Amino acid sequence: MAASKTVGDVLRAHGVSRRGFMKFCAATASMMALPPSMVSTVAAAIENARRPSVIWLPFQECTGCTEAITRSHTPTLEGLIFDSISLDYHHTLMAASGQRAEDAMMQAMEENYGNYLLLVDGSIPTEEFESHSCTNGHTHLSMLKDAATGAAAIVSVGTCAAYGGIPKANPNPTKARSVQDLITDKPIINVPGCPPVPTVLTGVLAHYLVFGTIPELDPYGRPMAFFGQNIHDRCYRRPFYERGQFAETFDDEGAKKGYCLYKLGCKGPITYNACATVRWNEGTSWPVQSGHGCLGCSEPDFWDKGSFYRPLSAAYWGDARTVGIGAAAGAAAGLAAAALARGKQKKAQQEEKA
Amino acid sequence: MSGLSGIGVKVESGAAAPDEIYANTLPLLHEIRHALARLVESGEPTVIDIQSIPMGPGDMNRLMDALGEGEVRAEFEALGKTVIRESRYGGVWIIEHLNGSGGVAGRFIEITWVPSLLQAQREDVEAGLEALADALAAAGN
Ligand code: SF4
What we know:
The complex is a heterodimer of chains A (354) and B (141). Chain A has 354 residues and is of the alpha/beta class. Chain A is 43% helix and 9% strand. Chain A folds into two domains: 50-227, NADH:ubiquinone oxidoreductase-like, 20kDa subunit (Rossmann fold); 231-347, Cytochrome-c3 Hydrogenase, Chain A, domain 2 (Irregular), CATH 4.10.480. In chain A, helix 2 (18-31) packs across helix 3 and helix 4 (64-70) packs across helix 11. Chain B is an alpha+beta fold and 141 residues long. Chain B has one domain: HupH hydrogenase expression protein, C-terminal domain (Ribosomal Protein S8, Chain: A, domain 1). Chain B has helices at residues 19-22, 25-42, 59-67, 122-138, and strands at residues 46-49, 73-77, 81-86, 92-98, 104-111. In chain B, strands 1-5-4-3-2 form a five-stranded antiparallel sheet. In chain B, helix 2 (25-42) runs parallel beside helix 3. Chain B is elongated and about 65 Å long. The interface between A and B is large, with 39 and 41 residues. Iron/sulfur cluster binds at residues 231-232, 235, 237-238, 241, 260-262, 266, 268-269, 288, 293-294 of chain A.
């Protein structure tokens, strides 16, 4: 099957010259957040990498993750990364449907038992709600457990698969759980985001393709290369934060001058993701650059952390007008500020619940 | 209609942010200066992946304006267009990889004598040799 071809074979089949291949490797290394000095290592590894079989199971989700990833511009380097894997099952994308699609999945799972990469988007309803999300008569809980058994590793695509996301938000009407809540005996890479940055997912796939291993993960199971840095620490508006210059409303003078959005509820200080550098839509922009604070969508339970428009410190200090003081106190050290904000966020959550 | 260029965008806030506020251009220019000094002293090249650096609106343009245009400019087509151009500072090259729809897929500053992608690649030369020999043989020469 196609999975036996090397990535080099696939690129040559696309008529890619060596120069094009080196360009592909430079962009892939950049995508994997590797330094440019690693390009030759990446080239040597990609040349001979076998195409891994990938099974993608969409569960309780909105298809936004699939949309984000497949709607990126074509033809692209990301597209070539996708061509470099053997995507054997994805019920939204594949031509086959119904029983034929299920048969294709079973065949791919049997042929690549123990070696395929399982991608999941969406959370999984459990207990008395297990049957609320099914494909072809199988509950998603049973499908996940079956598919996980033969997987080499699992990638949870999007916040729903990684942490339960919106379906799990209070009051969690389907008792939705994340993949890592339910599968504990397989390596799991969380690629959260609502949706995740497409380049981050392809970067993770590229890493697996190139090194055959899973990347280094943070305590939330996210690849350090993309989630190791705080949005706030990489934000181009940070100098305003440091100077205590904040937009007070979305259309005031401060907003027009591009001031920091902390007082308008920006969750950048407690959020780890690659938006600030990788950006969206062909690197055009990202939420903060568009004038809206970060929602913190790559963090567990982001939907239950209070209003998107309430400043991080407001719940703690009780008054948005004192935010400047909270922000200035935290400004001394980025990570300390993030830790402080995380504490505040927890407290805000407890208050919200109460 | 394809790509972002096809979407009509109306900019309302108008006024461009003053140069000093995002302040990402100056540190980068200093980094380039250090790399250029290294190239001159020890021949060691440097590659900077500028896509991975936080940039505010207009920062990239300010950086490009500061680097300016030099004497050399080359393009090649492989997985979309790539533009390689020397800046006004000899040895400082700007390399932009575009994808099929014209979006930037990668942007690097290379501080080196000649960017490696400008040179013919051994594998392509070997394939070219074979193709030329075949063409001559097919023509009975
Ligand atoms: S609070 Fe938000 S807008 Fe302000 S510097 Fe941090 S991430 Fe940027």
